[in-house]
Design brief:
Blueprint: H1 5-14, E1 16-19, H2 25-36, E2 46-48, E3 53-56, H3 58-61, H4 66-69, H5 72-81, E4 87-96, E5 104-107, E6 112-114, E7 124-129, E8 132-136, H6 139-144, E9 146-151, E10 162-164, E11 187-189, E12 196-199, E13 205-207, E14 216-224
Antiparallel strand pairs: 1-12, 2-3, 3-4, 4-14, 5-13, 6-8, 7-8, 9-12, 9-14, 10-11, 10-13
Amino acid sequence: MKDFTKHKDELSENGFTILENIYSKDEVEKLLSSIEQVDDSTKQTFRKSEDLFAIRQFLKEVPQTADLIFNEKLKGIIRQLFGEDYFVVKSIYFDKPETSNWFVAYHQDLTISVDNKRELPHFGSWTVKQNQFAVQPPLAILENIFTIRIHLDDTDEKNGALKVVPGSHLKKIYRPETIDWKVETEILCPVPLGGLMIMKPLLLHGSNRTTNNKRRRVLHIEFSNQELPKEINWSEQLQRVC
C-alpha cells in the first residue's frame, strides 16, 4: 500500500497536496465524452458563456460519471487522507476555455451549498442564485471539509493553475487584503492531466489569466463527515464513496 504520510503532512501543514497519475488518459477521455453528451440547454445548474462553462451539482446532473471518478485509486486516497466516514457535499465541473482572459483573485472558500434558507445561529452571508442556496457556516464545518480537484487537462502557469499561500488555512478567516507578503509566500500548483490537487477550503488561492490558448477543465468535489442542523441539509449529499 502506498505511504500517504507525505501527503497527510502536506495537507496538514501547507493546506494542499498534489498526486499524479490517478486517472489514465483513456479514463479522462471517457469522462470528457460523458460530459459532452449532456444537454445543457435548460438546466439551472449549467452556466455557459464565452469565458466559462460550469456544471453545478455535477454528480447529480451527470451521474454516469460516478464509477469513472470514484475508481479504486481515488477511493484509497479518500480512505487514507480523510477517513471512511466522509461523503460528497458539493461537485462542480469547470471549463476555462482557451481564450479565457479572466483571473480569480485570492480568496478562501467560505460557503457551503444547502437545500434551503433558514435563519440559524452562526450561519450567515446567505446567497441565492438560480435557486441554489449558499451560506457561510461555523468555522468548525469549514475546517472539516476537504476538496479534491481532478485535472482533465495539463495545467500550469499559462492556463490558470492555482496559486496558493501555503499554511494560510491555519489562520482561520484570512482576508486577502490583509496578506503580508513580507512573511507569506506564493506557490504555483501545476497539475498534469489525470492528477489531483487536494486542498482545504480555507487555503488562500487564486488563478491567473490563460495566456497559451489551452483549456483548463477541472472537476471540483468537496467532502465532509459532518451533519448540518436539522433545518437545512447539504444540497448535494451523496453516500460514502469508500
